[in-house]
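Continued from yesterday's entry.
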Amino acid sequence: MKNTLKILSKKIKNKKVLIVGAGPVGCTVANILSNKNFNINIIDSRNHIGGNCYDYKDKYGLLVHKYGPHYFRSNKKKIIDYLGKFTKWIPGNYIVNSFIDKKFYDFPINLNTINKFFNKKFTPSEAKKYLKKISLEKKKFKNKNNFETYLLSKVGKNLYEKFYKNYTIKQWNTNPTLLSENIAKRIPLKFNYDNEYITSKYKLMPKFGFTKMFEKMISNKNIKLSLKKKFIFSNQHLNEFDIIVYTGPIDSFFNFKHGKLGWRSLKFVFKSYKRKYKQHCLQINYPNDFKFTRSVEYKYVTNQKSNFTSLSYEYPKSKGDPYYPISTQHDKKILKLYNIEKKNLEKQGIFFAGRLAEYKYINTDEAVGIGLSLSKKILKKN
């Protein structure tokens, strides 16, 4: 019996895993499997770990998010407890305003927003009745299930056009009637005075940043990290590794054989100012002014003390790093073909996981959850 256990232990220890992508999913899988004596090779095409969560200190020593703000939130205590092994947490006070007609309004829309915009003093029940009165009925629209009709049926024409329409056109460069109503459903509508941007139970930030947290996750003798290394799949990988976890773009893995999937990209312009704060809150949306969609002042969530402050200004664009899946009907048809292919490859020990590999928008906590679930699946099979 002891000899059998030794043999089994040796087999597990010799399991070699290739993880493509050092983002939240890749780092989570690497952490879990390396602690079970799997030998892990992580590769990433970028020069850093952490994926789009990567943060760094600028020339003034201020922690900023290179790829735009990542507001960590979750409703799952197990995610918080798991990541808590690698970071201390600080509160994430995520306050957002929208700049409309030279005035600042709470966003997402709440009772303050409604009363200020319409110059009223509604109670919550009165505000609900009023929005219902000015909203348009879905049945009157030819195409009932899209971004625009969903919001017109919830907030009416005035609020939709001032707060949502132009922001969405800038963000997606697409007619809002062609976008899924699921995008609109991600933005809550509140009939109270709660001005928090996020409604999740846990709203936190890693005290020393996301990058430091991920560094601790993959600090294990069983993990080898290679940066600035592009991945092109070949059968040689199957000979070299027992398991492959791929977190890159799914269409790229298959060399775009069924076509390219549509993504929106972003350009970030960072500016520093010699003053304690530039804005009165963390984030300001600009639906109807300027070419950028929002400005973010990171000190509001890093809690750093400095006489300088740094902001990012966000410009949506068509080409560049993939951020948001456009997910048109054409994209969905292409994705279906790739999903058939990836299902067959799982039998050979190749797993696809994460935002790029699954072609869907996910938050950081969801990415970590995907990594935990996939690790459990791999351990069960091995």
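--- second protein ---
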Amino acid sequence: MLVQVTDFFEIEKIPEKKIAIVYLNRPEKRNAMSWAFWAGLPLVVDEVEADPDIRCVVFAARGKSFTTGLDLEEFSEQFGPRLRGATADVRMDLMSLIIEMQQGFQRILHSDRVFISAVHRHCIGGGLDLICACDMRFASKDALVSLRETKVAIVADMGSLNLLPFIVGHGNARRMAFTGADFSANECHKMGLFDQVFDDRDSMMDNAIKTAEEIAANPAIVLKGTKKILNYMYNHSPEAGMDYVAVWNSAFLDSDDFRELITAFKERRKPNYK
């Protein structure tokens, strides 16, 4: 089932597998992030979260590139007055715009769904912000990644500076941020940005979908709790995290799916989770 969300996104739902594939769908512009992207991304998360049959989501892209990042020409034309505002009032408007643009990535990061990104060719600027917000990242071997904002006179403000150090380490994050250079799929794999790299786009998509199906076969309540604990560890100590997961399981361990597991174990069969 296909769902169109703004002009930028197309969602393919596969409810029998409990997954969805979200395509960046502006191939004629190599999926450069127009306002339809920034306005539409929170709506994408709304759409998948509103569907109880969807547990795992794959972000992929139509066309020759995953995304070349922010559509600078459109952005400067549409928001030029805010960018060049001389007063505090206009600067406050600009800050509000930046926070509004961050919302889609924040929603992915804090969603109880699991998100996988599948990257081919260019993944630049805002594309890196997008995949950093995801839980897992796959790539084809032709992928090129750049934290390009440094080269276009912008301090990256959509999440990559905040999340990359936890994914690739502080040294690699600083190298990517300060240089703005292109990094190959193999380099990104060695750094830990990409979990797996595949020979071509088709095998990458096959494996991303297979992994999504494997994840989605697990109980929704457990996926939610697991992501909650992993996110908690971004800014808490291991000791605090252990306490948090103890409280979580004290409240939510005895779920319908857990009871089904016990019954299935006793009956020597595979559990049938909701």
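DSSP finds eleven helices and ten strands in the chain. The chain has a mean pLDDT of 94. Will compare against the first tomorrow.
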